[in-house]
Amino acid sequence: MIKKAFLSVLLMALVTYLPRVLPIAVFRKEIKSPFIKSFLHYIPFAVLASLTFPDIFFSTGNISTALCGTAVALFLAYKGKGLVVVALGAILTVFLTGLVF
Amino acid sequence: MEQSKKNQFIHGVKRGFPIALGYLPVSFTFGLMAVNGGLPLWLTVFISLTNLTSAGQFAGTSLILSGASYLEVTLTTFVINIRYMLMSLSLSQKLDKNISLAKRLVFGFGITDETFSVASAEPGRLTNEYMLGLISTPILGWSLGTLLGGLICSSLPEALSSAMGIALYGMFIAIIVPPAVSSRPVLTIILVSVAATLLLRYLPVFSFISDGFRAIIATIIGASFGAYFYPVKEESTDD
């Protein structure tokens, strides 16, 4: 069991590492196309948005607490708070509203 | 010269520090889950050290715990992580051209959703030293959080451990909302990406698409939409 788990972990590490390094290792040319340049520029926002919604609503096992946590995170981020404050604010909100719902 | 390299490294460490702190609750949750599921503590920490990723590692580990085959574990993890190719390609345009292959192979290990986003927002070319600094604290935070979660797993109240499930998404929100407030294109791209994700997820026609591919397709739709309607002007540092 442990041996199989260990081998599985090594395989996971490999297929996590390869997509990260292949493009920066192989690709050095400057991309000229304005479309592709803009496309690459916008990727961070598109990726994180699609990873966050709607999954955040199911992240706590209770949609009501997750909705409250999301609202607080959005508010804190809108106010320009940093990563840590937003994450902790969301956790705390979920925990506290969990006592009610 | 040496001094400027050192400064670059320190600058990277500083930029990586908030990421590391944000990783603590997320990796803590991972440690809890894996050890509660029956993995030994050393293997759980080893997963965080070697994988350094959220979604892929959570999914892969739950599959291992459910006794899935090598192929299932590898394929699922890979599909979830294909998005890193887009990020890595995007970074390839910002890296100092003279950075050697060996150095790229080292710091490339530390590309995550968060380190990538922070590096992308950095003005100018990215140096090897900056990248090394940027990834070092998050690696530490991710492993340390996992270790703590695995150690404390049985004594934490259920309500608190389930509340921590939201931490990862809280970090994502902290990264994308401030630029969306000041930039109309960014806000639009976020909305389009989310709309695409919802359609892919809830329309029965698309139900054959796995979670990992869904994120990739939605990203391509959102970023293409932005590139078409709001092309970035030459040499604009950020908008």
Question: What brief labels describe this structure?
Answer:
heterodimer; A: 101 residues; mainly alpha; 4 helices; flat; B: 239 residues; 2 domains
Structural summary, described in words:
The complex is a heterodimer of chains A (101) and B (239). Chain A has 101 residues and is mainly alpha-helical. Chain A has one domain (2-100). Chain A contains 4 helices and no strands. Chain A has helices spanning 2-26, 34-52, 63-78, 83-100. Chain A starts with a helix and ends with a helix. With 239 residues, chain B is an all-alpha fold. Chain B has 2 domains: 2-164, no CATH class; 183-239. Chain B contains 12 helices and no strands. In chain B, helix 2 (41-51) runs antiparallel to helix 8, helix 4 runs parallel beside helix 12 and helix 6 (101-107) packs parallel to helix 8. The longest helix of chain B has 36 residues, at 2-37. Classes of the chains: A mainly alpha (101), B mainly alpha (239).
Produce the secondary structure layout.
The complex is a heterodimer of chains A (101) and B (239).
Chain A: H1 2-26, H2 34-52, H3 63-78, H4 83-100
Helix pairs in contact in A: 3-4
Chain B: H1 2-37, H2 41-51, H3 55-65, H4 70-81, H5 83-92, H6 101-107, H7 113-121, H8 128-152, H9 158-163, H10 167-182, H11 184-202, H12 211-229
Helix pairs in contact in B: 1-2, 1-8, 2-8, 3-4, 4-12, 5-7, 6-8, 10-11, 11-12
